[in-house]
Amino acid sequence: MQRKVHKAMAGHSSETTKAYLRSRAQMVSDYLSQLLSETQRPAALFAGMNYSLLAGGKRLRPVLCLATVESFAKDPRTALPAAAAIEMIHSYSLIHDDLPVMDDDDLRRGKPTNHKVFGEAPALLAGDALLTQAFSELAGLDTIRPQLVLRMVRTLADAAGPYGMVGGQFVDMEKEHGDGSEADLEFIHRHKTGKLIMASVVLGGLFADVDEPQLTALTEYGLHLGLAYQMVDDVLDVTATSEQLGKTAGKDAVAEKLTYPSLIGIEETHRRIELEFQSALASLRGIGLGDSVLYGLAELLVNRQS
Ligand code: GRG
């Protein structure tokens, strides 16, 4: 099948956005690499945390956070603790998601999964430790008003916990091998993936101390982009190889997961991705960010091949 391309602007080049993504992803990786010292006791726990955290993910969520900060003319470096907290939570979720009791996977970010290297119980604890330490990192932000830090903490907790990612994962699990509806599927994707992507953008907005209408528009942008992101993930699970993805391809069908391609087919899924993508862009235009890096990042994310 010919690859479907979603375009933000006619004649728009994605090269500048790609260079931006590379540079900020490197900034995040450099920051993360000095965060958790493996000379601490218990060294094996820190080694397990670093194994997944530094395994070379795309860093899309923390980069979205920094991009939002920069869109409001603030220095991205000062927001690195927030970006790091988001990536720590994302990494924890991947470690737990790969455990035998969940998706039971051997490959992640092109490497053996955490539990394959360290064992199941240490992997469980490495995930727990990343989740907890993320909030310490975030709460340590001392360059902005404490009220803003509190709102950031609450936004991230709500996006990661029962009202967000864990809630979505729970319904995903319930609907495996089952007869889920389209409403179930939308709930799963919005919560499992969409909320953390939304929080990445909103944390950037809170850090930059934007006003409430701007925050609402950023929330809308993040939610639309987050849903589109997981729809793309569903498509790639069918169309891409394990080598391209750095994780096992074709797993959704084997596990009889409720996905957009399985429910409505790939063509219709692309139509929905386009709708979410255009809604995300409209939210940005509504607050004058139509030529911001967030616009280009949305395009890169929905057209990703891995
Ligand atoms: C508590 C046992 C236990 C499990 C919880 C919360 C949870 C497990 C799982 C969360 C759901 C989850 C793993 C969603 C994944 C969404 C997704 C699209 C992941 C891939 O993200 P990318 O493409 O990956 O950004 P990289 O590797 O580039 O960071």
Strand order of the largest sheet: 1-2
Shape: globular
CA(first)-CA(last) distance? 17 Å
Low-pLDDT windows of residues: none
Whole-angstrom Rg:
18 Å
Total domain modules:
1
In round numbers, the mean pLDDT is 95
Give the names of the bound compounds.
geranylgeranyl diphosphate
Please tag this protein with its features.
mainly alpha, 306 residues, single chain, 2 strands, Farnesyl Diphosphate Synthase, two-stranded antiparallel ribbon, 15 helices
Write a structural description.
- The structure is a single chain.
- With 306 residues, the protein is an all-alpha fold.
- It has one domain: Orthogonal Bundle (Farnesyl Diphosphate Synthase).
- The chain is 69% helix and 1% strand.
- The chain is built from 15 helices and two strands.
- It has helices at residues 15-33, 43-53, 60-71, 80-98, 114-118, 120-139, 146-160, 165-175, 182-207, 212-239, 242-245, 251-254, 260-264, 266-286, 293-302, and strands at 107-108, 111-112.
- It has a two-stranded antiparallel sheet.
- A hairpin with a 2-residue loop joins strand 1 and strand 2 (111-112).
- Helix 3 (60-71) packs antiparallel against helix 15, helix 4 (80-98) packs antiparallel against helix 6 (120-139) and helix 8 packs antiparallel against helix 9 (182-207).
- The longest helix is centred in the last third of the chain and has 28 residues, at 212-239.
- The model has no long low-confidence stretch (mean pLDDT 95).
- Residues 57-58, 60, 90, 93-94, 96-97, 99, 102, 109, 165-166, 169, 192-193, 230, 233 line the site of geranylgeranyl diphosphate.
